[in-house]
């Protein structure tokens, strides 16, 4: 615990700085306004201390904010910088062996929420059950090949054939066209590998619906896919997958998007540059091209399903990052349910939080489960080899940005507003909620019982106006965005949130709500027409 | 018309710009006023109407096997690519359009044949709608410091100025005339905007004829008089909106800028806005970017940056912000000029007025602003927008830039403007269309000589009549952010300047957001109002019917409420997510996840809840009614064509077409 007088550089404010186990607190003292800063220590990404007589600490926070603390005493500033660093080291992992639980979510007393309230708010099993019902109806006419491939052995074979055991699983079933969206990892194509089992599976899939074609969307370039052969992986051989066509849509994965993101954040923080400089920096960051590519690949996949009635399998190398991006965005475009508030939460839960680590078919639930009727329905993905666990970067900033672009082009089609996207962005890092604490589902048991769940926090009545869109109009149609450069924009609400004042857009949001609630109030005031119609008619006859 | 060589060409193909493989077959008609393309598809027969005055360039491209391509670029940024089967037809159309697009006499312009079927009185009323005398009264003029001067009666002093001008009371006719002789084209300093709160003002003029050393006592007295008219301040700013280099170059030609040593108590300031030629080229470059076929993000951003367009917009905004701050925060009067004081000066003065005074952010106020700073002060509409055939070097998108500045502000302050984006786009369209007389000619004097008000109609009346289309539902006149001067962030924020796709790509509907928040909210508002009126009528009637007891109605209306909740389904105010709140709350979410619905309905088995929480029922009914409602209620929806240039005046256009 440390205390020091303090002064901030951006909007100079003098006050007392307090460091607690989880927070950085700035109290401006009695003489000032009651403004108070409270920052979770885990939110500080980087704290740099500059030399000089009075120490200046620059903090880059994970929510893109930059804080400058000027501490009069150099000694003390050193201490504080060290303390912040220590706190950073301590907190990222939730449950540290030997140290115990240090993480804030375990201590967060959320007002109005009881523990264990809604940890099962969006269990993916429910979705799979629902889908299984739909698919079951379609599969009623399926041929015999299909039942063969539903065999657990075939599935196991297929899993062995895929990198990391990520065999094709169902991501989305488009009921209208009867097509499915699958995702997997790349196939292993070493010369000695046997592909028969999987080829059978594929044949079964394509035959599931008479006349259905299949497309494999590979999120690597053709060249990268070829290079993967060196490590006994690569692409599906044409001859082996009859009825399936392969398309390469290179999406960058891993570091490049992350670097673009950081580059853009930095560019947005630089207030000195001229406007020309700004555009070339925006270009140089290469962030918007990532958005454009992700959206156009998604549209390609979605179009294949809806317009051409084809089944789509998406995979890259590992079947995580960009594969998840494409499959989850495709659902937003095609599925009206996933555009609702509950739908997006379910989607995020299913596609981003639950999917992680490596999947093994051996650990599937008992075959009584309706989901196990279909080989690609894997309701309980479980990690087997935690050591090599590669977590998809959730929340993929790219995913959130793409959703925002969709919302900008179809403002009436999303039930949630920008507020939800920003909340997801914020809570993925330093959150009082336990949702994003663990990488894998297995580690969750303690998290579940002792922390609050993000969704329950977000679904509280007081959050509604911020997160829900007042102008949502449900529509069963797919929303096809334009991916031309002039239709895509920089997400000001995220990248410029600490630079451009958010008040004007907040005022507009409020006004939108007001207009809509005004109408509802008027409706409530309406005397009942139907019940009193006879009387009124009589009245009008009398008078008229 | 003698210029039409061939009035009709069949089997012409109109190429879709985005997906060039798609083309629609149709017939091309040339009339005295329009180019019309009618699709052959029997069920739609979609029509594309283009006014001749909108045509900017016509390009005949190399003949291909499929026919002879003709590219028509319009001033409202529409791009039409036609493929005409016969080379000879193509050539005829080309020659006809070349002539039709460049009229030589004012009488050839559309506004002289356009007839919206209004009688004489309505026409006169239309012209009276925007009245600058009223505007001056609103500003608080005349007052002890400012008076109306008749020095320019019959345009005796300056022929590009209006006759009625406000000048400082202490400026005598002698001073004004003396000062006018020392200013380019005799455009002496005159009042543009008076800030009532602190007596500071914005005045405008042209550059002084100072050369390297010339002085003029009267001009110095004139500036002195402006300073004295603002008792709260002991100096004035003189803002030269040109880059310093340009102003220096003018000195060699005997023009230039004020020397701080000669004028007492002025602070001189350059704000580098480039001249009309730079702006014209910049727009040209930006439009080239817009024409790129499926460019990458980098192509687009590089192209945009190289065009420099946004940099120029920012320069204009910066000048406006500087002046607005000087007036509202420092309380100092400002004199603005550029070279002739009719392009950059008009831009900057109007941006500053817009920032300072919320009145100009209303629908009517914005019309007044254009009337005040552009039309009356002699902005050369004819030359800048090429209404008549003239020097192409005079053409420049000066007012387009101002309109874009307004849009950029609207993006930043969505609640501050009473009008919406469509209003700006339609004004831009009509500046070029010559359908109304407002923007004809180069000065008030020319308009008077042509008797514009007696022979044509006013755009303002037309816009005012259709004002429901132009309202911004998010406008909050009473909000702290929008009252008084707009407060812009203190840090120079480059990020806020965006590419205006809604203007420059507006004919590529596929690129625009497919749903309009404005239209939706306006429709909701309208519906609320209707309901309100209905309710009032019903209540009146209920009162009349004595038999009905009041408490009965109340109980009953509560019961019928969930079933009435259809049409615009919008999420409720009351969250009913947790079952325990639920029983107290009759309303439920119209759009909830089905899974959640199951759970809830299992808990509470009231009739109402079952009905509304059933996902299939509520979803399907909402979808249909919601979508339908929107299309028939939205102001621009329905049968009216989405592009305003053709649909609205179809009837009158057709009349012209028949007589031709």
UniProtKB/TrEMBL annotation, chain A:
<dbReference type="Pfam" id="PF06602">
    <property type="entry name" value="Myotub-related"/>
</dbReference>
<dbReference type="InterPro" id="IPR030564">
    <property type="entry name" value="Myotubularin"/>
</dbReference>
<protein>
    <recommendedName>
        <fullName>Myotubularin phosphatase domain-containing protein</fullName>
    </recommendedName>
</protein>
<dbReference type="InterPro" id="IPR011993">
    <property type="entry name" value="PH-like_dom_sf"/>
</dbReference>
<dbReference type="InterPro" id="IPR029021">
    <property type="entry name" value="Prot-tyrosine_phosphatase-like"/>
</dbReference>
<comment type="similarity">
    <text>Belongs to the protein-tyrosine phosphatase family. Non-receptor class myotubularin subfamily.</text>
</comment>
<dbReference type="GO" id="GO:0010507">
    <property type="term" value="P:negative regulation of autophagy"/>
</dbReference>
<dbReference type="GO" id="GO:0019903">
    <property type="term" value="F:protein phosphatase binding"/>
</dbReference>
<dbReference type="GO" id="GO:0005737">
    <property type="term" value="C:cytoplasm"/>
</dbReference>
<dbReference type="InterPro" id="IPR010569">
    <property type="entry name" value="Myotubularin-like_Pase_dom"/>
</dbReference>
<dbReference type="GO" id="GO:0046856">
    <property type="term" value="P:phosphatidylinositol dephosphorylation"/>
</dbReference>
<feature type="domain" description="Myotubularin phosphatase">
    <location>
        <begin position="98"/>
        <end position="495"/>
    </location>
</feature>
From TrEMBL, chain B:
<dbReference type="GO" id="GO:0046856">
    <property type="term" value="P:phosphatidylinositol dephosphorylation"/>
</dbReference>
<dbReference type="InterPro" id="IPR016130">
    <property type="entry name" value="Tyr_Pase_AS"/>
</dbReference>
<feature type="binding site">
    <location>
        <begin position="275"/>
        <end position="276"/>
    </location>
    <ligand>
        <name>substrate</name>
    </ligand>
</feature>
<dbReference type="InterPro" id="IPR030572">
    <property type="entry name" value="MTMR7_PTP"/>
</dbReference>
<feature type="region of interest" description="Disordered">
    <location>
        <begin position="550"/>
        <end position="660"/>
    </location>
</feature>
<feature type="domain" description="Tyrosine specific protein phosphatases">
    <location>
        <begin position="307"/>
        <end position="351"/>
    </location>
</feature>
<protein>
    <submittedName>
        <fullName>Myotubularin related protein 7</fullName>
    </submittedName>
</protein>
<dbReference type="InterPro" id="IPR010569">
    <property type="entry name" value="Myotubularin-like_Pase_dom"/>
</dbReference>
<keyword id="KW-0378">Hydrolase</keyword>
<dbReference type="InterPro" id="IPR000387">
    <property type="entry name" value="Tyr_Pase_dom"/>
</dbReference>
<dbReference type="InterPro" id="IPR003595">
    <property type="entry name" value="Tyr_Pase_cat"/>
</dbReference>
<keyword id="KW-0443">Lipid metabolism</keyword>
<dbReference type="GO" id="GO:0004438">
    <property type="term" value="F:phosphatidylinositol-3-phosphate phosphatase activity"/>
</dbReference>
<dbReference type="InterPro" id="IPR030564">
    <property type="entry name" value="Myotubularin"/>
</dbReference>
<feature type="compositionally biased region" description="Polar residues">
    <location>
        <begin position="566"/>
        <end position="596"/>
    </location>
</feature>
<dbReference type="GO" id="GO:0012505">
    <property type="term" value="C:endomembrane system"/>
</dbReference>
<dbReference type="InterPro" id="IPR036003">
    <property type="entry name" value="MTMR7_PH-GRAM"/>
</dbReference>
<dbReference type="GO" id="GO:0106018">
    <property type="term" value="F:phosphatidylinositol-3,5-bisphosphate phosphatase activity"/>
</dbReference>
<comment type="similarity">
    <text>Belongs to the protein-tyrosine phosphatase family. Non-receptor class myotubularin subfamily.</text>
</comment>
<feature type="compositionally biased region" description="Basic and acidic residues">
    <location>
        <begin position="641"/>
        <end position="653"/>
    </location>
</feature>
<feature type="binding site">
    <location>
        <begin position="338"/>
        <end position="344"/>
    </location>
    <ligand>
        <name>substrate</name>
    </ligand>
</feature>
<dbReference type="Pfam" id="PF21098">
    <property type="entry name" value="PH-GRAM_MTMR6-like"/>
</dbReference>
């Amino acid at each position: 615990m440390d205390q020091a007088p303090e002064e901030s550089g951006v909007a100079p404010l003098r006050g007392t700085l307090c460091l607690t186990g989880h927070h950085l607190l700035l109290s401006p003292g009695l003489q000032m306004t009651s403004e108070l800063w409270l920052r979770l220590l885990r939110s500080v990404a980087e704290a740099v201390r500059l030399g000089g007589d009075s120490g200046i600490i620059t903090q880059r926070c994970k929510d893109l904010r930059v804080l400058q603390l000027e501490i009069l005493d150099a000694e003390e500033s050193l201490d504080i910088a060290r303390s912040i660093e220590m706190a950073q080291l301590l907190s990222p992992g939730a449950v540290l062996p030997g140290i115990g639980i240090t993480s804030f979510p375990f201590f967060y007393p959320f007002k109005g929420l009881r523990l264990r309230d809604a940890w099962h708010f969006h269990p993916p099993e429910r979705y799979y059950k629902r889908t299984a019902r739909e698919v079951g109806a379609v599969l009623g006419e399926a041929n015999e090949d299909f039942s063969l491939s539903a065999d657990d052995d075939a599935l196991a074979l297929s899993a062995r054939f895929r990198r990391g055991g990520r065999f094709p699983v169902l991501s989305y079933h488009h009921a209208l066209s009867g097509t499915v969206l699958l995702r997997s990892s790349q196939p292993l194509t070493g010369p000695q590998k046997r592909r028969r089992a999987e080829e059978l599976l594929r044949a079964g899939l394509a035959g599931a619906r008479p006349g259905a074609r299949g497309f494999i969307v590979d999120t690597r370039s053709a060249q990268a896919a070829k290079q993967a052969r060196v490590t006994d992986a690569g692409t599906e051989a044409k001859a082996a997958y009859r009825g399936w066509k392969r398309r390469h849509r290179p999406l960058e994965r891993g570091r490049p998007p992350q670097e673009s993101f950081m580059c853009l954040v930095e560019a947005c923080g630089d207030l000195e540059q001229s406007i020309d400089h700004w555009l070339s920096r925006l270009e140089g960051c290469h962030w918007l091209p990532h958005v454009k590519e992700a959206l156009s690949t998604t549209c390609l996949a979605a179009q294949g399903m809806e317009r051409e009635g084809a089944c789509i399998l998406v995979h890259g190398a590992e079947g995580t990052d960009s594969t998840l991006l494409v499959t989850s965005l495709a659902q937003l475009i095609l599925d009206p349910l996933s555009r609702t508030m509950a739908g997006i939460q379910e989607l995020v839960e299913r596609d981003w939080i639950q999917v992680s680590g490596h999947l093994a078919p051996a650990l599937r639930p008992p075959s009584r489960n309706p989901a196990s009727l279909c080989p690609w329905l894997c309701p309980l993905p479980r990690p087997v080899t935690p050591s090599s666990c590669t977590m998809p970067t959730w929340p993929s900033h790219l995913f959130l940005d793409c959703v925002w672009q969709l919302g900008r082009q179809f403002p009436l089609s999303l039930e949630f507003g920008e507020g939800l996207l920003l909340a997801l962005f914020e809570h993925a890092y330093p959150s009082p909620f336990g949702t994003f604490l663990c990488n894998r589902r297995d580690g969750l048991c303690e998290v579940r019982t002792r922390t609050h769940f993000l969704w329950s926090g977000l679904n509280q009545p007081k959050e509604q106006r911020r997160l829900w869109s007042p102008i949502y109009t449900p529509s069963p149609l797919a929303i096809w965005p334009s991916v031309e450069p002039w239709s895509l924009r920089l997400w000001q609400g995220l990248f410029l949130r600490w630079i451009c004042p958010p008040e004007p857009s907040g005022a507009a949001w409020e006004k939108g709500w007001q207009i809509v609630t005004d109408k509802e109030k008027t409706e409530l005031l309406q005397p009942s027409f139907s019940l009193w119609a006879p009387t009124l008619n009589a009245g009008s006859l009398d008078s008229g | 018309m003698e210029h039409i060589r061939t009035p009709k060409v069949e089997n012409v193909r109109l190429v879709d710009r985005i997906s060039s493989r798609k083309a629609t077959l149709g017939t091309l008609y040339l009339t005295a006023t329009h180019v019309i393309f009618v699709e052959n598809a029997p069920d739609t027969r979609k029509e594309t109407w283009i006014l001749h005055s909108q045509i900017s360039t016509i390009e005949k491209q190399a003949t291909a096997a499929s026919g002879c391509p003709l590219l028509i670029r319009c001033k409202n940024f529409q791009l039409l690519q036609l493929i005409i089967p016969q080379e000879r037809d193509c050539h005829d159309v080309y020659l006809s359009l070349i002539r039709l697009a460049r009229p030589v006499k004012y009488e050839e312009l559309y506004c002289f044949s356009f007839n919206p079927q209004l009688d004489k009185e309505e026409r006169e009323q239309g012209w009276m709608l925007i009245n600058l005398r009223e505007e001056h009264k609103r500003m608080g003029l005349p007052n002890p410091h400012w008076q109306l001067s008749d020095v320019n009666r019959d345009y005796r002093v300056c022929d590009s100025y209006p006759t009625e001008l406000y000048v400082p009371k202490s400026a005598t006719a002698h001073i004004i005339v003396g000062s006018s002789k020392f200013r380019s084209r005799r455009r002496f300093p005159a009042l543009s905007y008076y800030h009532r709160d602190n007596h500071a003002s914005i005045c405008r003029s042209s550059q002084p004829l100072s050369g390297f050393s010339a002085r003029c006592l009267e001009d110095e007295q004139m500036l002195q008089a402006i300073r004295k008219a603002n008792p709260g301040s002991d100096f004035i700013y003189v803002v030269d909106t040109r880059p310093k280099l340009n102003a220096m170059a003018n000195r060699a030609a005997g023009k230039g800028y004020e020397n701080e040593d000669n004028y007492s108590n002025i602070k001189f300031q350059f704000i580098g806005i480039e001249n009309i030629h730079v702006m014209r080229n910049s727009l040209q470059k930006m439009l080239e970017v817009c024409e790129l076929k499926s460019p990458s993000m980098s192509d687009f951003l590089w192209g945009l940056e190289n065009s420099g367009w946004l940099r120029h917009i920012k320069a204009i905004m910066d000048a406006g912000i500087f002046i607005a701050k000087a007036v509202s925060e420092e309380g100092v009067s400002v004199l603005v000029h550029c070279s002739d004081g009719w392009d950059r000066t008009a831009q900057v003065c109007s941006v500053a007025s817009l920032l300072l005074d919320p009145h100009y952010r209303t629908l009517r106020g914005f019309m007044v602003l254009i009337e005040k700073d552009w039309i009356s002060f002699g902005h050369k509409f004819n030359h800048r927008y090429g209404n008549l055939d003239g020097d192409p070097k005079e053409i420049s998108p000066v007012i387009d830039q101002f309109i874009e500045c307004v849009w950029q502000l609207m993006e930043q302050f969505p609640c501050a403007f009473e009008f919406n984006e469509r209003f700006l786009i339609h004004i831009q369209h009509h500046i070029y269309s010559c359908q109304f007389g407002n923007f004809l000619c180069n000065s008030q004097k020319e308009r008077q000589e042509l008797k514009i008000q007696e022979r044509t109609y006013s755009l303002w009346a037309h816009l005012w009549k259709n004002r429901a289309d132009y309202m911004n539902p998010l406008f909050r006149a009473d909000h702290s952010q929008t009252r008084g001067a707009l407060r812009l962030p203190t840090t120079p924020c480059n990020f806020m300047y965006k590419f205006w796709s809604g203007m420059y790509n507006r004919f590529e509907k596929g690129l625009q957001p497919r749903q309009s928040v404005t239209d939706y909210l306006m429709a909701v508002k309208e519906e609320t109002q209707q309901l309100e009126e209905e309710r009032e009528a019903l209540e009146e009637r209920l009162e009349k019917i004595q038999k009905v007891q009041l408490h009965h109605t109340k109980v009953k209306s509560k019961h019928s409420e969930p079933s009435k909740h259809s049409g615009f389904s919008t999420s409720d105010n009351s969250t009913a997510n947790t079952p325990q709140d639920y029983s107290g709350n009759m309303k439920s979410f119209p759009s909830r996840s089905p899974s959640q619905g199951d759970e809830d309905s299992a808990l509470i088995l009231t009739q109402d809840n079952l009905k509304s929480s059933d996902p299939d029922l509520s979803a399907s009914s909402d979808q249909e009614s919601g979508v339908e409602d929107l299309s028939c209620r939205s102001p621009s929806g329905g049968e009216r064509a989405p592009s305003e240039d053709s649909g609205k005046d179809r009837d009158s256009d057709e009349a012209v077409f028949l007589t031709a």
